[in-house]
Design brief:
- By secondary structure, this protein is mainly alpha-helical.
- It has 25 helices and eight strands.
- Strand 3 and strand 4 form a beta hairpin.
- Helix 7 (179-191) crosses helix 8 (195-207) and helix 13 (320-327) packs parallel to helix 15 (355-362).
- The N and C termini lie far apart (80 Å).
Amino acid sequence: MSMKNKITIRKNDGNDLLLQQEIVQALLEASIKVCGGSFSRLELTQMVNTSISFLSEDDKKPHNAEIRMATRIFHKKSKFHCTSKSKKEERKGDSLPNTSSSKLGRNAKTIELISDYGLSRTVSSPREIARLLDSVLSLNWNVQINRSGIIFLVTKTRALQLRKKGKLQCPLCPKWCNGEKGLWWHQQQVHGMDHSLAVETAMAECTSFSLVPYNHNKTTCDADSFSTAELEVHSSSNSIRTDDSVFEFCRNGSLKELQIFIQANDEVDLNTMCDDKGATLLHWAAGYGQLKIVKFLLEQCHCDVLIGQRGPRSFDGRTALHWAARKGHIDVVRFLVQTSPPQLLDATTKDGTTAFAWACWQGHLEVMKYLENKGCCVHSKNSFGCNAVLWCAQGSSQGCSNLEAIKFLSQIDGMDMTLVNANGHGSLHKAAQRGQDDVVKWLVHDENNLRMFQFSWIGPDSDDCCPSDLAGMEGYHDLALYLVGIEKKLIETFYQQMKPCVLEWLKKNQNKKCKFSSNVWEPGGGVRRFYSVLDKYTTNK
């Protein structure tokens, strides 16, 4: 097969012609595996020839190659077109995360693909085909897929070049951003990610180098849903990818159907079979509270309860207990703790977060009390310096209050209620950013809390945002104004009690002093308000 008319050499990538030939061959083999029963080898060869674009330095794009094979296959096999949807509506339908064709409606365009082994699959978008190609594509490259089903390939050499130029890759889409702030801003604006999570993700990306597999389903950061859209893509030679229907059995509690599937596929290792987000059947069953299926997988299929999810960043290492605790399924939590090795109780994700912390985040008080009673480590901190209090203060992903949960934590001996994490966030920052009015008011009015609080608790974080700034920037204006009054009161109290410390802090931050505006919610806004309050103390000093 000749690609001479298509190839443009990228000079910086060394032996490019060999790399490009490797891509062509790998794509042809993957296409045969996915739809070798629907097309002849000659047809697939011709489509491969016209679907790959190798980019030159002049293109100024981050990737080395673009592959449109999925769109070629889909449009060639399409049997009918949508008649009741506009093109814009059709594109919206195509962005639905990991949804089966039966859920797309009667008018959705679907095609049937037959693999080289005779396996029939129904797909409803080029992106689904791209996912299938990705699952069998034997390339040690960074593979990214956009909503249209275009596959982008980036060599490690190219990725290193981008890193040297200060570029950081978004783990949620093919975008390479300008530095740490560019990345967290992109994740907030494009993916709707919470500010603190976006900053922490950007920090993690900045301090580690890896080719992150792209989550082609995720278009928003929906922390509430245990859908496959929430789980990051994991492509590994140690993982077996399979049809999504088996995971639906775990979601819906369809034990009989699951048993039939496992009996028909007894050669499959259930510990390594995962969805394309790195989650196993056990993770799905635990996350959806399907106790009967959890028991079946552990007691009859002998799944390893200690195996964590295989995904990037905070997804990596989540166990079945993490998912059950996060979703508040107390019956599943009890069963897992009572029947599993003791190390499961304090097992952590890759970033060091425990199941107890996840229960605190979602305010599942019954789960929190049970895990604490069973002796879990309630004082642990993750790699970002967040303890259970910081997780709890921000409120659940449903927007519900965690007031009773944080009161429970305050009664635990030795619980650090004033901890400030690596990003400069304390519990007040977290609660303010999520609009948790009742938690904020309890924190600042509880006399025991006020005796313990340190100046950093109301001070600016690493982005120079005080709690009032964070609340205002997120649109909680009434809460922001309330916090302004609290911050003014506390800064005066701190100044009177710890004058040398506050003066030293003012000296370090004097470059941020500018014209005071009480209602400007932005980095540095709170600092300016502090200066306005302390002017009467610091004038002529």
